[in-house]
TrEMBL record:
Record organism: Aquimarina gracilis
Domain of life: Bacteria
UniProt cross-references to Gene3D superfamilies, sorted A to Z: 3.40.1420.30
Entry protein name: Outer membrane lipoprotein carrier protein LolA
Amino acid sequence: MNSYFFKLKILSFSMFCFGITLQAQTKFEREYRIKKHEAPKAAVAFISKGFSEKKVKWYVEESQDGKTFEAKTNYKKNKYSIEFDTLGNILDIEKKVSFQSLQNVLKSKIISSLNSLFVKHKILKVQIQWKGDQENLLKLIKDTKKENYSELYEIVIKGKKQRTFKMYEILFDSEGKALKVLEIIQRPSDNLEL
């Protein structure tokens, strides 16, 4: 069994058994544009296999989790963000979607979860996040075969817990359960791409 799936199951089980409530941690990130030749060679090679390289923009992202490289592109009328570690190993692929495009049962569970976490909220951005090995992720992009990958949902909201609205990024599993809640700390010069 893939260690990621095992860890995800352990986390879900632990939260269920011990009744851990999610508390918002903070998320800060600094993103800046780089040229293709500054990205890891393995990352560039992956992008060339899965996407048209003409419209790929490369970025470095520094956050509370460390430094990563990100390729952003449009492919088959969808916006993708592909994240790599500093060696060029793929971490995940995110595809921007509308909230309305999600299955009704999943939407209902996500709304229920948001209602339990916030007094008021507005969904600003939804991304499907895929994790898995390189070959399966390439097949997923090409719509040829869908197996051995995990699917999560990253949702950015403007939410109110008490008196003020703040920005949050929430990671949901495929069942609509909130796994991680991060308050987004923005500097005045930050631009959140929605």
